[in-house]
């Protein structure tokens, strides 16, 4: 059995109060770190990033189509210039010159088709570029919103960390000078029960919130004032208030 001066036993209530504050602050910190807006903003960024990647792929595909048509056009134009130069030189036979003429006409038609296709491809590429730019802007906006949420959460966590540090100091100050065996009993009970001490007031244990049975109250009444007693229901140390009975 542990004994301690009633005044020292009452000091445990201050330590418990600071412990309760620490636990509440720790819960608030955990809640802040699990802010649903963090996951929600991250999901939006992931979605916008995916959309941007898709838009970039479509833009690259459209640009590649323009480049391919441009390359074909360059080849056709080069062939036409070669044929025209040979035709103008007049150094080939009549059949060859007639063949060159027919080929130039075919190449001219091909160039017209390529010009039309290239124009369509360029319009598609312009639309793809605009869509990509819009998707990039949406990703940037989502990222900015996510960073704002993260900054708010970090600020809240930092605020709670500072308060936790302050309350830890207050808990240590409240425990300073309490006899070691009594404090050790409190800490053991705290670890086992989730609370270390509670007040007994008007026959009710504030550890369990229940009125003690008449027999338990009679037993506590017979106990010396310096004897540490426990709540029969919650198992925590009971500190007898001046109006405990």
UniProtKB/TrEMBL annotation:
It comes from the Bacteria. Keywords: DNA-binding. GO terms for molecular function: DNA binding. The keyword DNA-binding applies. Residues 16-193 form the CT398-like coiled coil hairpin domain. This is DNA-binding protein.
């Amino acid at each position: 059995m542990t004994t301690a001066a009633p005044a020292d036993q009452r000091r445990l209530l201050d330590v418990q109060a600071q412990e309760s504050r620490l636990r509440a602050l720790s819960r608030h910190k955990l809640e802040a770190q699990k802010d649903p807006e963090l996951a929600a903003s991250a999901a939006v960024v992931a979605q916008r990033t995916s959309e941007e990647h898709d838009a970039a792929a479509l833009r690259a595909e459209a640009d590649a189509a323009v480049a391919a048509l441009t390359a074909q056009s360059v080849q056709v134009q080069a062939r036409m210039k070669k044929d025209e130069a040979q035709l103008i030189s007049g150094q080939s036979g009549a059949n060859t010159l007639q063949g060159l003429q027919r080929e130039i006409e075919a190449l001219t038609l091909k160039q017209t088709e390529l010009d039309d296709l290239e124009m369509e491809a360029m319009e598609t590429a312009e639309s793809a570029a605009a869509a990509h730019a819009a998707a990039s802007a949406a990703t940037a906006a989502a990222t900015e919103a996510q960073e704002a949420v993260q900054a708010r959460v970090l600020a809240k966590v930092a605020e709670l960390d500072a308060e936790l540090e302050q309350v830890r100091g207050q808990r240590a100050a409240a425990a300073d000078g309490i006899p070691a065996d009594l404090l050790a009993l409190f800490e053991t009970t705290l670890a086992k029960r989730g609370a270390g001490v509670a007040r007994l007031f008007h026959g009710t244990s504030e550890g369990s919130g229940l009125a003690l049975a008449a027999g338990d109250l009679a037993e506590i009444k017979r106990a010396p004032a310096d004897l540490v007693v426990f709540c029969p229901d919650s198992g925590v140390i009971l500190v007898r208030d001046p109006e405990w009975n």
